[in-house]
Design a protein that fits this description.
heterodimer; A: 463 residues; alpha+beta; 20% helix; globular; B: 443 residues; PmbA/TldD fold; 6-stranded mixed sheet; 11 helices
Chain lengths: 463, 443
C-alpha cells in the first residue's frame, strides 16, 4: 500500500489551499465470481480493482477526486488539481502520520484466494444437486459464488494511518419451479465477512432444500389478496422492514440537513414501547461488519432505539460536523470511486418477550410474511415498500394457506408505532444495500414481529 | 494503446483467441446546498477487461492497472478461469466487417463547459427554486454530473474499434410541506449538448409536480381504469427488458422463451430498440463485442419479432447477432442489454387520455421495482403515487397506494396510447398508456 512519506506529501498538498481536513483512501480489491446453471459452470471471472480517493473538507463542504494512478508524481498532480477548487489560504498543518495497530476482530482461516476455483465449484455443485433432486417440478438451479478480498488504507491530516483487510464470500442460490408455462422461484443467499470456513459451519444442503421448497410451495400458492390487515413478519430477513422504514432515515445523510422524518427527535418516542434496535458493525465475522469504517474510525455498536425512544443516529465525519456530533463509525463506501457517507452495517430489532407461537395464535386474520425480498424508502417522507417472496394467510390464529405476489407499503414514522408484538427469536440475514455511496454489504435482522393494519398489495382481489 | 506484449503472451500460452476491452472514464460532479458548493468531485479512471479462449472455453479477467509486466499474470488468470468452465456454449470473437454507423454521441461544448459557469447555473436553479412557492420549503440539492467514456476493443482476429461519448446530467430536488404533509420531487435533464439545458423548464416541472403531490389521500381498494404516465411506464418497461434477453430465453428463465412469432400483447404495442436514435442516451455504433448495431422492432403490433442477442446466443439460434452484447462495466462478462428501448407512441395527448378515461387513476410514480416485480412471471405489486380522476378531470392526489397485476396481462388490455413519448435515465422510453382495469390497493 501507499508509502507513508508519499501519503504525507499528498495530504500536505491537499490542505495547501485552505481545506481544514484531508484524507486519502486507497483500495485494492480482488474479486472472483463463478456462475452455475443446472450444474454447468457458465461464467468464471476474477481480477483486481485498484484506486485512490482523495478528499478535502472545507467546513461543511467536501471535494473529492479518484484515480488509478498511484505513482508519486500523478498523485501529487491529482491532489494539486483538487486543492485548486478551494481558493483560500492554508488553515491547518498535517500531523505526522502514525500507523495504528489493532487486533483484527474477524479471524479468517480459509482465505478464499488461497483455494483453487475447483474447491468453490464443488460447494456450488452440492447446492445445485440438492436443488435439482428436490422435486420434478424444479427445472432450474442457478448458483452464484462471489469472493472479495478488500485491502484499504486510510490516512488523514489528523495523523491517522490505518489499514483493514476485509474478506467476504457469499453463495447465492435460486430454484425455479415450472409447469405448463408457469414459473415461480425460491432463493437464499448466505454470506459472511470470513473465508471458506463459513461453508463448513452452515448446512448448505438444508438451505438448498429450503430454496427448492420455497419455489415449489409458491408455485402452488394462490395470489395474495389485497387490503389492510395485520402482518406477522418472520425473523431474519424480515428485518428489511426496519432497514427501510427506519434505518435509512436515521442516517446522517438525510438527518444532517433536516431532511429526515426523524431529524431533531433524539429522546422522543418514535416507536412502540416493545421496539429497541441497534446498528452493530463490530459483530465478529458478520456480513456487515468491519474493523474500521471507510473513514478510518473503529466501528461501534450504536443504540438507535430503546423501548420506543430515539437514542442515536448513524453519523459519518462530514455530516457529523453539521450535526455537531462525532462519527459513530458509520462512514462507508463501495470503493475508492465513491465518497463515503453514513450507512448501516448490521442493523436489527432486539429480542422482545413474545413467542412466535403466541403471535400467530393471537392473530385472527392476517398475512404471515415468512420470507421477504428487497424494498426501498424515501427518507424524507418515510414512505417505504417491500416485497414478500413467501407468504401465508393466518386465519383464526392458524397459518392456513400459502399466498404469493404480496407487497407491503407504509410510512416509517407510522409503522414503528404499529408494531405490537416482538418475539424472542432474533436472527440476521445478508443483503446488499444501495445508496449514494454505492452498494455495500449489510445485515438486516429481527425477531418475529407483528405489525397491525398494514397495506398489503396482491393480485388475489379485494379481501 | 499497444497490447502487442499481451497478444504475444496469449499466443505463447496457447490461447486460441484473446480480446481486450479498455474503458476510460472522465467524470465531474458538483452539487450546491444553501448557496454554497457542497460537493465537488473530479475523476479519471481506466479499466481493462480481458477474455480469452482456451481449449474451446472462455475465461475472463480484469484489472485497473496495466503494464507489460502483468501480461503473464493476466493470461494465467484467463487460463485458470477457462479451465473451470463446463458449459458447452460457444463464445465468439467478432471477425466480421467493421462498417459502423455514424453516431453523434460526443459534444465538445459539453466537455468545455467550465466549473464557474456550472456553479453559477446551479446556484440560480437553487435560488429560483426556493422562490417558486411558499409551500416549497426547501431545495434539498441541485447537482450536475458530467461523464465522458472512451471504449476501445481489440481482438486477435483483427478487430480494432473505438468510440467516445459524453453527457451531462442536471438534477434538482425539492421538498414541499402543507398542513403537516411533506412531499419530495426531483427533476432532471440529461443533456447531450449544451442547448438541452433549460432552467425554466426544470423549475416549472418541479413546481407543478411537487405541489400536485401535496394533500394526497387514499382511495378505496378496487379495480380502476388507469393511466400509467410516461415516466412510470418507462420504468416498467425497464424491468421487462430481461424477458427479451435471448440468453434468458435459451436458459429457460424468460417467460417468452417459446413465444417467438407469437402475439404477446395488444396489437397497439410496438417496442423498438434503436441504437441510432439522435441524442439517445444509449446510442452507440457497436456493442461491447464490436458487433455493429442497428434499429429493430422487438415487438411489432403485439407480436414478438426477435429476442436481443449477443454473438453467443445468436450462434446458438443460428441467426445473426443483433448488436446487443453489452457488459455492465469493463470488468463483467458480456451479457445482453437493449440500447434506446421504447414503446412507440400513439396520437392522444395526456389530457385526451384523461377525458377518455373519465374516471379512474393516473399513476405517476412507481417505487420498489427491484423487489415488487417478478421478472420470471411478470407479476407485480408496487408502491405507487398519482392522481384520482373524476368526470374527466384530476380531482385529487393519491399516495402510498399499490398497483398489482401482471405486465403481460395489462399490456393486453391497452385502451389508448398517448403521444407523449418520454425517455428515462435507464434509456427506456414510453408514452402514457390508458389501461382498461388495474387492481389498486388503497384503504
Amino acid at each position: 500500500m501507499l508509502d507513508k512519506n508519499i501519503a504525507q506529501e499528498v495530504l500536505e498538498t491537499l490542505i495547501s489551499t485552505g481545506g481544514d481536513f484531508a484524507e486519502i483512501y486507497e483500495e485494492k480489491k480482488h474479486t472472483a465470481t463463478y456462475a452455475m446453471l443446472n450444474g454447468k459452470v457458465e461464467n468464471a471471472n476474477s481480477g483486481t480493482k485498484y484506486g485512490i480517493g482523495l478528499r478535502i473538507y472545507n467546513k461543511y463542504a467536501s471535494v473529492y477526486a479518484y484515480t488509478n494512478k498511484n505513482d508519486r508524481e500523478s498523485l501529487l498532480k491529482t491532489a494539486k488539481k483538487l486543492s485548486e477548487s478551494i481558493n483560500e489560504s492554508a488553515k491547518i498543518t498535517a500531523k505526522q502520520l502514525d500507523k495504528v495497530v489493532y487486533e483484527d476482530k474477524h479471524k479468517i482461516t480459509k482465505r478464499p484466494s488461497a483455494y483453487p476455483a475447483s474447491y468453490k465449484i464443488d460447494l456450488m455443485k452440492r447446492v445445485n444437486d440438492t436443488i435439482l433432486a428436490y422435486d420434478p417440478i424444479i427445472k432450474q438451479a442457478i448458483v452464484r459464488y462471489t469472493e472479495e478480498e478488500q485491502e484499504v488504507l486510510i490516512c488523514n491530516t489528523n495523523g491517522l494511518y490505518i489499514t483493514d483487510d476485509r474478506v467476504r464470500t457469499r453463495l447465492a442460490m435460486q430454484a425455479v419451479a415450472e409447469e405448463n408455462g408457469k414459473m415461480e422461484n425460491g432463493n437464499h443467499a448466505p454470506g459472511t465477512h470470513a473465508g471458506l470456513e463459513f461453508y463448513d459451519s452452515i448446512d448448505l444442503e438444508a438451505l438448498a432444500k429450503d430454496t427448492a421448497r420455497m419455489a415449489k410451495d409458491m408455485f402452488y400458492a394462490d395470489e395474495c389478496p389485497s387490503g389492510v390487515m395485520d402482518v406477522v413478519i418472520e425473523n431474519g430477513f424480515g428485518g428489511v422492514i426496519f432497514h427501510e422504514a427506519c434505518g435509512h432515515a436515521l442516517e446522517a445523510t438525510s438527518v444532517a440537513k433536516n431532511e429526515s422524518v426523524f431529524a431533531n427527535k433524539i429522546g422522543q418516542k418514535i416507536a412502540a414501547d416493545c421496539v429497541s434496535a441497534v446498528d452493530d458493525g463490530t459483530i465478529p465475522n458478520a456480513w456487515g461488519s468491519n474493523n474500521i469504517d471507510d473513514e478510518g474510525n473503529f466501528t461501534k455498536r450504536n443504540l438507535l432505539i430503546e423501548n420506543g425512544i430515539l437514542k442515536g443516529y448513524l453519523v459519518d465525519q462530514l455530516n457529523g460536523r453539521r450535526m455537531n456530533t462525532p462519527s459513530s463509525g458509520s462512514g462507508r463506501r463501495q470503493g475508492y470511486n465513491f465518497e463515503p457517507t453514513s450507512r448501516m452495517s448490521n442493523t436489527f430489532i432486539l429480542n422482545g418477550t413474545d413467542t412466535f407461537e403466541d403471535i400467530i395464535a393471537s392473530t385472527s386474520f392476517g398475512l404471515y410474511a415468512k420470507h421477504l425480498g428487497g424494498g426501498s424508502v424515501n427518507p424524507t417522507t418515510g414512505d417505504f415498500n417491500f416485497a414478500v417472496c413467501e407468504g401465508y394467510l393466518i386465519e383464526n390464529g392458524k397459518i392456513t394457506k400459502p399466498v404469493k405476489g404480496a407487497s407491503l407499503v407504509g410510512n416509517g414514522a407510522e409503522v414503528l408505532f404499529k408494531i405490537d408484538k416482538v418475539s424472542n427469536n432474533l436472527a440476521r440475514e445478508q443483503g446488499i444495500c444501495g445508496s449514494i455511496s454505492g452498494s455495500i454489504p449489510t445485515d438486516v435482522g429481527q425477531p418475529t414481529i407483528r405489525v397491525k393494519q398494514m397495506s398489503v398489495g396482491g393480485r388475489g382481489g379485494k379481501l | 494503446m499497444n497490447f502487442t506484449a499481451l497478444f504475444n503472451e496469449a499466443k505463447n500460452k496457447n490461447l486460441e483467441a484473446l480480446e481486450i476491452y479498455v474503458s476510460s472514464n472522465v467524470s465531474r460532479d458538483i452539487s450546491i446546498y444553501e448557496g454554497e458548493v457542497d460537493r465537488f468531485s473530479s475523476n479519471e479512471v481506466i479499466g481493462y477487461g480481458l477474455r480469452g479462449l482456451y481449449n474451446g472455453k472462455v475465461g475472463t479477467t480484469f484489472t485497473e492497472i496495466y503494464d507489460d509486466s502483468m501480461c503473464e499474470l493476466l493470461v494465467n488468470q484467463i487460463i485458470e478461469n477457462a479451465s473451470v468452465i463446463s458449459s458447452d456454449d460457444e463464445q465468439l470473437f467478432y471477425q466480421g466487417e467493421m462498417n459502423y454507423p455514424e453516431i453523434n454521441s460526443y459534444s465538445n461544448e459539453l466537455e468545455s463547459m467550465n466549473n464557474e459557469e456550472i456553479i453559477k447555473l446551479l446556484k440560480e436553479l437553487e435560488a429560483e427554486g426556493s422562490k417558486l412557492d411558499p409551500r416549497i420549503t426547501k431545495i434539498s440539492e441541485t447537482s450536475y454530473s458530467y461523464s465522458e467514456d472512451n471504449i476501445y476493443i481489440e481482438n486477435s482476429y483483427g478487430l480494432k474499434c473505438e468510440k467516445k461519448s459524453n453527457y451531462a446530467f442536471f438534477e434538482i430536488n425539492g421538498i414541499a410541506t402543507e398542513n403537516g404533509d411533506t412531499q419530495t420531487d426531483f427533476e432532471f435533464k440529461i443533456c447531450k449538448q449544451l442547448t438541452d439545458i433549460n432552467k425554466e423548464e426544470l423549475l416549472t416541472k418541479l413546481k407543478e409536480e411537487i405541489l400536485a403531490k401535496l394533500n394526497a389521500s387514499k382511495i378505496p381498494t378496487g379495480k380502476y381504469k388507469t393511466i400509467i404516465r410516461n415516466s412510470a411506464m418507462a420504468s416498467l418497461l425497464g424491468v421487462l427488458t430481461s424477458s427479451f434477453d435471448a440468453d434468458n430465453a435459451q436458459k429457460g428463465i424468460s417467460i417468452f422463451k417459446n413465444d417467438l412469432g407469437q402475439k404477446l400483447f395488444s396489437e397497439k404495442i410496438t417496442i423498438t430498440d434503436d441504437p441510432l436514435l439522435e441524442n439517445g442516451i444509449a446510442s452507440t455504433p457497436f456493442d461491447d463485442e464490436g458487433v455493429p448495431t442497428y434499429k429493430k422492432d422487438v415487438v411489432s403490433n403485439g407480436v414478438l419479432k426477435t429476442f436481443l442477442h449477443n454473438q453467443k446466443t445468436a450462434h446458438k439460434d443460428n441467426i445473426a447477432p443483433t448488436g446487443n452484447g453489452f457488459k455492465a462495466g469493463y470488468a463483467g462478462a458480456v451479457t445482453i442489454s437493449p440500447t434506446n428501448f421504447y414503446i412507440q407512441k400513439g396520437s392522444s395527448s395526456l389530457n385526451e387520455l384523461i377525458k377518455e378515461m373519465d374516471s379512474g387513476c393516473i399513476i405517476t410514480e412507481l417505487n420498489g421495482l427491484h423487489a415488487g416485480f417478478n421478472a420470471l412471471t411478470l407479476d407485480f405489486s408496487l408502491q405507487a403515487n398519482g392522481f384520482f380522476v373524476e368526470n374527466g378531470k384530476i380531482s385529487k392526489a393519491i399516495n402510498l397506494i399499490m398497483i398489482s397485476g401482471n405486465l403481460k396481462e395489462i399490456l393486453n388490455q391497452v385502451e389508448t396510447i398517448g403521444e407523449d413519448l418520454y425517455f428515462s435515465y435507464n434509456a427506456c422510453g414510453s408514452p402514457s398508456i390508458l389501461f382498461e382495469s388495474i387492481q389498486i390497493t388503497g384503504e
